[in-house]
Structure formats: C-alpha cells, structure tokens
C-alpha cells in the first residue's frame, strides 16, 4: 500500500464532521484551531457561520486525508505535523478554522482534515485550482524533509519488486494459471481480466500485505501491468507460453531439420548458435521467433525472437542437451562410417598397385643395361 492522500474543495454538512470524528468509536481529534464546539453539530455551525462571511465562495471547505502504510513507521504526532505543514503551504493561517482527526480502526493509520477556506475576517485564503495536485506536492516535499519515503518512491520500489518477481515466475510457468499460483506463493495477488474476443487481456498485481480488507471503501489496490512496465505485454506472455508448449512437445525430436519443419508448420522460425567443444560441434543457444511478430518486447528480440534460456532456463538446458546428444551420435556414426570407407579405399589402392615384375620385363631391363655398358666402353676409347 502506497501513501495515499486526497484533497478537494466542497460544501459540507455536519455529517462530514461526524464521520471524521467517529471511525467506529476509534477516532481521535489530534488538532483543532479556532473552534469551541464539542459536538459535530456545534463545530459545523461555527464553521458555517464564518463561511457565510464570504458569499462568493460556495465550496468553502477544504477536505481530505493522508494515509500511510503500516510499515512506514510514522508516529501520529509526526504525521499530524507533516499534514499541518502541507495545509499551511496551501494557504491555511491562524485565522482559518481547522480540525484533524486520526483513524486507527483500519490496517493503515490515516488522518482526515477539514479546513474552512474562509478566514474569520471573511477572506478566502486557500485557492481551489488544482488543490489535490498542490497538496500532494507539498506533502511529498515535507516527507522528504523529514527523511520519509513518499508514495511515489514507495510506488517505484514496489513496481520494481513486482516486475522482478513476475519475470522470474514467467520463466518457470507454462500458462497463466501456473503464473498466478507462483506469484501468490511469493506474496502477490494477480488478477487477470478477460474479454470475449482475445481472452486474457489485462493484469493487476498487489502485495497481500497491501490489501486492506477492513476498509469499506471500494478501490483497486496494486498496479496494472501497464503501470508496472510499458515493455512487457499480455500478448508477449501468450507467445512465451506458446513457444514453451512447442518445445515441450518436441523434446524428443531426432534432428534440427525435423524441428525446423515442425516449427514452420506452427508459424515459428528456429535459429541456432553453434560452438565447438573438444573438437565437437554443439548447439550453444536456440531462438524461436513467431513469424507474425516483428516487434521487440521485454523478452523478444525483433530479429531473433525468444532466446530459450531467457524464457525458461530449465527447459532450454534439457532441450539443448538432448539435441547435442543427437548431434554427437550423428558425428560419431559419420566418423565411424568415414573411417570404414577410408580403410576400404586404402585396401583397394594396395590391391591394384603393381608389386611384381614379369619375366619379359626382366630380360628387357638386362638388355638395356648391356647396351648402355657397350656405349660407355666405346666412349671411353
């Protein structure tokens, strides 16, 4: 749960003051200014009397609240001080009427405030334009001055945590059902939204610790997938699950050629990076690219597609080991076959190579030698 705050201008009745001062009997007034009444009706009549001094302002009350997560470790006095500082920067002075009540009946401690925009002299000191944005800005500035994280900073940290856990769970899940289960085991509730046309179309993630089951206020806690990241989409998750299913069905494929043929029949492309180890050719990495996808995503490369070890390290290791075993076996058989062929070739060469001299050839050689000797003697004379 991030630090929430709200601030708006409106006309109020005594009911608003009663609500702030009740909280199922647990409310506590932590600050009051320029008010003498002790009941909600008395306080309302005092504020209304001062508001009537300026007929031009109809929405005379500035109302809102500041809520902090239970783990923020901010005391009641500290939060009251921070809230008052923000209200003073909004234009509240010692001439305005104000009342602040703390609520502790729910999981997250919070403070409600009502400030009369009309001062006791009839002047309106608090502008209504963008009061919600201005109050939030001043509140965050005060929190930083006190060394306390703001709702924005809490939000950034929570989104990063959610994205990291979602990424890890995607690598070990084969469908959305498994993904939701694994995220739940890590302390996150994942809510999926669907439509009739495309099925699952959205996702909202919230920490179990941030779910406030005690509040009657209807709101959607946590963050949508698009608020967590603008890169990872539901469509890419569907492609990841489809790729995993294809690889799982083809773990026993006999060759890379067969795998590529099967991939083409399912509109997928296979790309491989080879390496050599101990003189053997082996697959190092494997990419699967949906033919219909020409965009880069959180996991998907525009040109290469999904690198299997990035979306499922365990499945990648198992599949590549099986493929390399097939490659090694084929290399051994090819080497063995080549060795047999080479041996046969050598035997044939030895068989057809002349290794004897005929009788006629022997006489011819002797005759030639005799002629050569006669010519040599004649030349020496």
Can you characterise this structure?
- There is one protein chain.
- The chain contains twelve helices and eleven strands.
- The chain folds into three domains: 4-149, BirA Bifunctional Protein, domain 2, CATH 3.30.930; 154-230, no CATH class; 236-326, no CATH class.
- The protein has helices at 14-20, 40-51, 76-90, 131-145, 151-171, 176-185, 225-228, 234-249, 256-265, 308-311, 313-352, 359-380, and strands spanning 4-10, 28-33, 61-67, 98-103, 110-116, 188-195, 199-207, 223-224, 268-277, 280-290, 306-307.
- A five-stranded antiparallel beta sheet has the order 1-3-5-4-2. A three-stranded antiparallel beta sheet has the order 6-7-8.
- Residues 331-344 and 355-359 have low confidence and may be disordered.
- It has 381 residues and is an alpha+beta fold.
Shape: elongated
Largest sheet: 5 strands, antiparallel
| Integer count of domains | 3
Main structural class: alpha+beta
What is the strand tally?
11
On the 0-100 scale, what is the average pLDDT?
84
Helix content: 40-55%
* pLDDT < 50 runs, ≥5 residues: 331-344, 355-359
CATH architecture of the largest domain: 2-Layer Sandwich
Rounded to an integer, what's the Rg over CA atoms?
A: 42 Å
What's the order of the H and E elements?
EHEHEHEEHHHEEEHHHEEEHHH
Q: How do the strands line up in the largest sheet?
A: 1-3-5-4-2
Q: Name the beta content range.
A: 15-25%
Q: Termini distance? A: 125 Å
């Amino acid at each position: 749960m991030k630090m929430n705050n709200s601030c708006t201008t409106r006309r109020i009745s005594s009911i608003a003051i009663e609500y702030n001062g009740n909280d199922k009997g647990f409310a506590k007034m932590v600050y009051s200014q320029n008010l003498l009444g002790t009941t909600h009706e008395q306080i309302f009549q005092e504020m209304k009397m001062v508001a009537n001094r300026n007929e031009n302002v109809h929405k005379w009350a500035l109302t809102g609240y500041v809520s902090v997560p239970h783990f923020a470790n901010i005391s009641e006095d500290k939060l009251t001080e921070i809230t008052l500082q923000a209200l003073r920067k909004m234009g509240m002075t010692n001439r305005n009427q104000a009342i602040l009540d703390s609520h502790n009946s729910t999981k997250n401690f919070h403070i409600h405030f009502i400030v009369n925009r009309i001062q006791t002299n009839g002047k309106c000191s608090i502008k209504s334009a963008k009061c919600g944005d201005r109050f939030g800005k001043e509140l965050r500035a005060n929190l930083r001055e006190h060394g306390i994280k703001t709702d924005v900073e809490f939000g950034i940290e929570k989104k990063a945590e959610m994205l990291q856990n979602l990424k890890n769970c995607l690598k070990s899940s084969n469908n959305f059902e498994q993904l939701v289960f694994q995220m739940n085991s890590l302390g996150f509730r994942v809510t999926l939204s669907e439509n009739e046309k495309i099925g699952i179309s959205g996702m909202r993630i919230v920490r179990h610790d941030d779910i406030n089951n005690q509040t009657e206020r209807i709101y959607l806690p946590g963050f949508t997938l698009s608020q967590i990241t603008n890169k990872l989409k539901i469509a890419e998750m569907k492609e990841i699950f489809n790729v995993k299913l294809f690889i799982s069905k083809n773990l026993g494929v006999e060759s890379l050629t067969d795998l590529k043929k099967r991939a083409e029949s399912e509109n997928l492309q296979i790309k491989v990076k080879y390496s050599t180890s101990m003189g053997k050719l082996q697959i190092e990495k494997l990419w699967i690219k949906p033919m219909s996808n020409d965009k880069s995503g959180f996991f998907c490369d525009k040109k290469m597609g999904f690198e299997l070890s990035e979306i499922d390290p365990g499945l990648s290791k198992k599949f590549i080991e099986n493929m390399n075993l097939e490659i090694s076996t084929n290399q051994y058989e090819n080497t063995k076959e080549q060795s047999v062929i080479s041996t046969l070739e050598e035997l044939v060469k030895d068989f057809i190579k002349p290794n004897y001299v005929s009788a006629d050839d022997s006489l011819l050689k002797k005759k030639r030698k005799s002629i050569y000797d006669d010519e040599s003697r004649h030349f020496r004379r």
